[in-house]
Specification:
It is a single chain. This protein is an alpha/beta fold and about 475 residues long. The chain is about 40% helix and about 15% strand. It is built from 20 helices and 17 strands. Helix 12 crosses helix 13, helix 13 crosses helix 14 and helix 16 packs across helix 17. The longest helix has 20 residues.
Length: about 475
Amino acid sequence: MKYMKKALSLLLISSLAAGATACGSSSGKASGEKSEDGVITLRILENDTAKSEGYLDELLNEFNEAYKDKGIVAVDANMDEYSNLAENGPYGYGPDVLYQANDKLMTYAEDKHILALNRDDFECAKLIPEEAWDAFTIVVDGKQYTCAIPVNVQEPMLFYRKDKLPENWETDWDKDGDKTPDFFQNWSSLYQYSEQIQDDSDGENYGLVAACNDLYMMAEFMFSYGGYVFGKDENGISNPEDVGFGKADAAKGMMGLRQFAGVMSEECIDDSIGQNRYSKVADGTYFCSISTPDTYVLFHDRLADVYKAEGLSDAEASDKATENLGMIELPGKMPADGNLSGNDTEVDTVVMGGVNGYGISAYTEHKEACIEFVNFATSREMIKKRAEILGIAPTRSDVAEEIGGVTGMIFESLNAGHISLMPSVKAVDQIWDPMRTLLSDVAKDAFREIKGEEVKYSDEAAMQEALDKASQSIYDAIFTLSK
């Protein structure tokens, strides 16, 4: 390990000095193409929402128009958003520029597949909070290197229809009289309201339905009770030897998740909810669901479809969807004992968050052209357009201030410790499958009980054992099975 850190440090230092800064070496294979007339073609990998909603097309068209006389053309990489740069890059098949979350980009950085960047090369640098830069910072031998440019900050959000609020919420669901429904402020009230909706509709409608097998969306049921992904070493760097999903009172929180799953649709146990949530919040089957800010447009468009089916024009439907679609942070309080039916003392909700940004492949032959593209893509105009089309929470302070919305609130929550960012280390790759399996099984357990079948997690002790086994599986995948 010391040898690898030393090698990476020397590589970074020499690359910085040469003006070809990289988080790793190049294999000689390259992304990017240069035609016979000298035109450079850059391949850009974006996420699927940006592609499906037309943002990538707008970005490429505007960049190509601006650079048509400068010998640079940007095209869609035509790859899945989760394509593996580590596998494709060395053979020349990877993108030149890629937009992904900090955990994935920094995995590439750790393995030297993306370039380290000079912040001063980017116009947006001074407008981005340090908390966002931290997500893309790698430390080698005590020196920090930036390996991507932050674009937007993410955390799970609650999406709902404002016009589906119960008529009696001010009298029956606002006990403290603060003009905000209790079920938007604490999980116990949200559970109890969800239970009421299910009972009143004979199981035809639901309150909250979310993807219980999705760690990113459900981490609050562990983090709020003292659980975590990895601990920190003496330098404040993530320590994968300390896997923390089962630490402190995390088992209490997971019992709460099991309880909540029992008043959700059974779709919550698998991947189907990932696509169904947009239309089912829109048509009122679900009162609310959980997703990230950059999927706002998907909820909006499905709700507009509902209004168009009721006879409104496209413009009227869009305006009404904007008026009635609510996107707020998750309830800020959890019951301290994990029992959502009671009125116990409360603990602060802590969710998993992340930062998405642009990285540049270490295999590109056209670093300077890539910097030009990233500068263009992170300009005020394009980040504002991205926010308008996709509903992101931008890290650029000028755009965030101009458009308002949730960005400031998210950074306040981050600074207050209510958001725990995904660790920016390679080992985080190993957390998803074991936790996904456990979370799905915990949600299934609620339906086993409903169906009269034998349950697995009847008490905290059983839940603690399951969390410990999942944590051990993650540890083994990082330190044993990978050898």
